[in-house]
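Final report, closing paragraph on structural work. Over the funding period we assembled a curated collection of sequence-structure pairs, and we close with a single example.
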Amino acid sequence: MKKILILGGGFSKERAISLVTAESVLKALKKKKYEAIVCEPDGNLIKKIKSYKPSVIFNALHGRFGEDGYIQMILEAAKVKYTHSGVVASYIAMDKEISKKIFIKNKIRVPKYLKYKLNKKNLFNKKITLKVKKKLKFPVVIKPKNEGSSVNVYICSEKNFIKNLKKLSLYNEVLIEEYIGGREIQVAILGKKKLGAIELQPKRRFYDYEAKYSSKAATKHIIPVEIDKKDLNKVMNIALKAHNLIGCRGVTRSDFKFYKGKFYLLEINTQPGMTNLSLVPEIAAYSGMNFINLIEWMLKDASIKR
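Its predicted structure, as stored:
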């Protein structure tokens, strides 16, 4: 019987969601009589791994230190098979600027953007407002360069731009992107396979943290996506291309906007959630793969040197 160590919790702003993902995975594995535990990645992680002696580590961490290459380096050093993407792919996907540059170079359409360094000296500088107005036009989206789950993402008008920028003063660098309207479509990739797509219609202004994780947000999930078959194939092909370009492994979810007949890739997630509201399990279920089969596929796919 395989022993599975599930990494959950962690140090990011997505800690609570990571624990929900970890518990969902644990529950599914226990039903199938796997020996499994949830483990927090603290300073004693290597000791815990050596003591438990798992055959596979299921990485259920989200956000910084969990899906940015940091924990992956530790798992490589521990020489235990683990799920999801490896060190380099995780780092690139989490750094929204580096991944954007790769996408642009490979002719994948992304929103136009500016990088802005935040410090006390220039935080309230009106020059940035003028620059944004000239290069991107309002409204714009501001976000940290390396957070997940739409943490600290704001849609800004010219009027509330500086006010929202101040909320991100904890970060060294932020991205300022043109706001793309249209439909929200997300695509799941499983290994080398296009698993499927789903459309989201949030009651909120966009698919933010609340819309992702609160059932009260009442986000509408539409599957199958009601678009032309040619367009559906196109967006799934772009997601697979992005997955391969970055060198992702296991499962990823790519977030798109579909506006005026064009797809814009917003970002690629290397460790999508596995909760009861999560999109990848929903897409998998629609394609005929239930939750435990999805988890078992990921465990089977696990390796080192990812």
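The first strand starts at residue 3 and ends at 7. The longest helix spans residues 229-246. We thank the funder for supporting this effort.
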